[in-house]
Amino acid sequence: MAYANLQDMIDRYGERELIDVTRTLNDDRDVMNVARINRALEEASELVETYLQRRYQLPLHPIHLAVTRAVCAIARYDLCQGNDREPSEQIRAGRKDALAWLTDVASGKATLDASLINERSETWSRIQTRPRSMQGTGLW
User: Fold this and answer.
1) Whole-number Cα distances in Å, 62 to 1, 80, 118
2) Residue 58 CB: number of other CB atoms within 10 A?
3) Which residues, listed in sequence order, are joined to residue 56 by a DSSP beta bridge?
4) How far is CA 88 from CA 38, 57, 66, in A?
5) Residues 6+ apart with CB under 8 A from 129
6) CA distances from 110 to 5, 66, 102, 113 (A)
7) pLDDT digits (tens, 9 = 90+) for 56-101
8) How far apart are CA 123 and CA 130, in angstroms?
C-alpha cells in the first residue's frame, strides 16, 4: 500500500520537477511518467514499512502526514537517480531527514498515533539473577 500518491508529489515538488525527473529523451517535453512515479512511491512506502513493522500494525490507518512526507522525500530521491542524473544536496538532505525520522519512530523516540503491536514473542531476552555466594567476594 502506498502512503503517498501522485497528487502528494505534485503538491510538494511541482509538476515541472516531476516531468523533468521522469522524462526520457523520447518522451514529450510536458508529460510526466506517472507509472514511474507510482512505482517510486510504492517502493518508498515499502521501505517505510520496514522501519514501522516492529512497532505498528500495518498498513497504517489513517495515513499520517509525516509518513506521507517521508515517502515523498524518499521517492523524490529515487526518481532523481539514473539516466546521468544525480540528486541535489537538498534532495539528499530530504531523504536523510526522512530516514532519520523513521529511525526515531522505529526506536520509540518519535511516535505515531497508530495501533501498536503487542509483542508476544518467547524469544525476547530475559534477565536471570544468580544467588550470591557466601564465599570469597560474593560475586559467584
Assistant:
1) 12, 29, 19
2) 14
3) 116
4) 21, 34, 22
5) none
6) 24, 11, 8, 10
7) 889 988 899 999 999 999 999 999 987 778 899 999 999 999 999 9
8) 21
